[in-house]
Amino acid sequence: MSLRIALLPGDGIGPDVTYATVEVLKALESKTPELSFEFHEQAVGAAEYLRSGSPLPEEAFEACRAADAVLLGAMGLPDVRWPDGKEMTPQIDLRERLDLYAGLRPIKLYHPDDSPLKGYGSERPIDFVLVRESTEGLFSARLNQADSGGDESRDVMRITRRGAERVCRKAFELARKRRKKCTLVDKANVLPSMVFFRRIFDEVGEEFPDVTREHVYVDAMALFMVRKPDAYDVIVTENMFGDILSDLAAGIVGGMGMAPSGDVGNDCGIFQPSHGTAPDIAGKDIANPVATILSAAMMLDWLGHADPADRIESAVSRVLADPSKRTPDMNGKLGTAEMTAAVIAEL
Ligand SMILES: NC(=O)c1ccc[n+]([C@@H]2O[C@H](COP(=O)([O-])OP(=O)(O)OC[C@H]3O[C@@H](n4cnc5c(N)ncnc54)[C@H](O)[C@@H]3O)[C@@H](O)[C@H]2O)c1
Ligand SMILES: CC(C)[C@H](C(=O)O)[C@@H](O)C(=O)O
């Protein structure tokens, strides 16, 4: 049976890394009789807004809903904004409308040379997953008027019992399959919403007596991620803290080009690199495709194809074992197409 994949290349380097990843998936398909893909490409993003007036046309949304999974590049351009000053963010609309409450952001160091931190590698691995709540938190204020011309503007952090319970449960379930440690990142020393989140985390944690749990304040986590990233297994946090910390985390394993992600709910999943559209390097064949290729591996795993997913991840890992095989963002000389070809050769 064919897997129906909605393909949303988006803006900037989105198409560069998406089409590179489609090449990898096609190569895998040609070697795997039980695997076949149907790609349904949709125009979504800032360029689509300029063309049609909508960054997420209804037809594209329906195609995402009907697909087995969605593979997305990146969306948004800093100069393309709504009249109120905010950027278009169809990826957030998709998370909210499809109820993709768990943003899974694995952080893994493949080669010691790729980290700005010293002393990490096979002996002392950096290997954790940040689980970002993706449907509420501080982001729930995003649809408020950006600037009403008054003297004040407020963004309210919204945490619901349902939202906190389900993301914490997802994090504990993941930790149970990994090294059985789950860390909540909050700001429960100051914010009432975070005291509430912590209480729910502890309640859900009672269902997982085999998983060690701990709490860390978000400011301290910004320090610990740099000082002792090997201390973490699964980290769960609200939307905005997860947005910020996942970029910091990408920075300790080689940068945004090394950070895959999956936004998953109970029935739908969207897989995309954590990075943006990088307009500074778009269309130059220098974007790092690794984050998107690893996101496609996460997609296959989520679709129940663990073996092909492992084959992609192992191929990436073998390529990265050779420090000369890097794109310019990681001080290498390979272009997007050459890096993609190297992964395909390892498949
Ligand atoms: N998920 C998404 O679609 C997403 C995520 C973040 C930002 N954005 C949007 O992207 C635009 C640019 O945002 P930004 O500059 O803050 O973040 P960005 O992630 O696009 O770029 C940050 C830096 O990382 C580099 N970079 C990012 N991905 C790379 C890759 N694959 N290979 C090599 N270098 C890479 C860029 O060149 C830049 O120097 C904005 O419009 C923003 O809203 C979209
Ligand atoms: C571009 C932006 C809307 C998006 C977010 O804030 O979720 C990005 O930063 C991410 O991490 O996926």
TrEMBL record:
<keyword id="KW-0479">Metal-binding</keyword>
<comment type="similarity">
    <text>Belongs to the isocitrate and isopropylmalate dehydrogenases family. LeuB type 1 subfamily.</text>
</comment>
<dbReference type="InterPro" id="IPR004429">
    <property type="entry name" value="Isopropylmalate_DH"/>
</dbReference>
<comment type="subunit">
    <text>Homodimer.</text>
</comment>
<dbReference type="InterPro" id="IPR019818">
    <property type="entry name" value="IsoCit/isopropylmalate_DH_CS"/>
</dbReference>
<keyword id="KW-0460">Magnesium</keyword>
<feature type="domain" description="Isopropylmalate dehydrogenase-like">
    <location>
        <begin position="4"/>
        <end position="343"/>
    </location>
</feature>
<keyword id="KW-0520">NAD</keyword>
<keyword id="KW-0100">Branched-chain amino acid biosynthesis</keyword>
<dbReference type="InterPro" id="IPR024084">
    <property type="entry name" value="IsoPropMal-DH-like_dom"/>
</dbReference>
<keyword id="KW-0432">Leucine biosynthesis</keyword>
<comment type="pathway">
    <text>Amino-acid biosynthesis; L-leucine biosynthesis; L-leucine from 3-methyl-2-oxobutanoate: step 3/4.</text>
</comment>
<keyword id="KW-0560">Oxidoreductase</keyword>
<keyword id="KW-0028">Amino-acid biosynthesis</keyword>
<dbReference type="Pfam" id="PF00180">
    <property type="entry name" value="Iso_dh"/>
</dbReference>
<protein>
    <recommendedName>
        <fullName>3-isopropylmalate dehydrogenase</fullName>
        <ecNumber>1.1.1.85</ecNumber>
    </recommendedName>
</protein>
